[in-house]
Amino acid sequence: MADDTSITLVTAFFPIGRGDWSDSTRSDQKYLDYFAHWARMRNDLIVYTTPEIAPKVERIRSDFGRANTTVVMIDDHATIDPQLLALMRSTARTYPPYSLFPDKPEVAKAEYDYVMALKYWCMQQAAATAHTEHLAWIDFGFDHGGTLYPDPEFFDMRGGGGASRKT
User: Does the pLDDT of residue 23 top 60, yes or no?
Assistant: First the structure.
């Protein structure tokens, strides 16, 4: 059980076909590799993902001896807020001609924008189930597998209030 300075980390991964994009491609496996780079963090972790990805997330955390992991399986993330997704799809079809960067995912890929917006929903859900008072979002693909922190041992720590290495 965490003390009052502990932080529960929250993340999510919903496959949106990014491996098939013509630009900014990343496969689902690439995201799992990125996750595995930082998944050794000792904080409680809540992960929102699909039933297909869930066992992979659990295995990665288990390989680091991290039993303090809650995986919330979402069968179809599009059903969380279908009205918002419909609005984003409409905007993605009509807005690109007015953008300086019409091919960027933030402009042209409604599903990308939608999963970015779902971060807030995930945090709200996590607040009701976390065993700590504090929550922090961490992107599933944080650090792209070692861009800023090449040594994965750096993450063998508890992050947040009272942060200490290998506690």
Answer: yes
Answer yes or no: are the C-beta atoms of 67 and 58 closer than 8 Å: no
Task: Give the domain ranges of the chain.
Answer: 7-75+119-146
Radius of gyration over alpha carbons of the chain, in Å? 17
Residue 58 has pLDDT above 90, yes or no: yes
**What is the DSSP-derived secondary structure letter of residue 51?**
T
Which pLDDT score is estimated for 143? 96
CATH number of the 7-75+119-146 domain: 3.40.50
DSSP string, 61-91: HHHTT---EEEEE-S-GGGSSHHHHHHHHHH
Do the Cβ atoms of 49 and 57 come closer than 8 Å? yes
- Residue 91 CA to residue 109 CA, distance in Å, equals 10
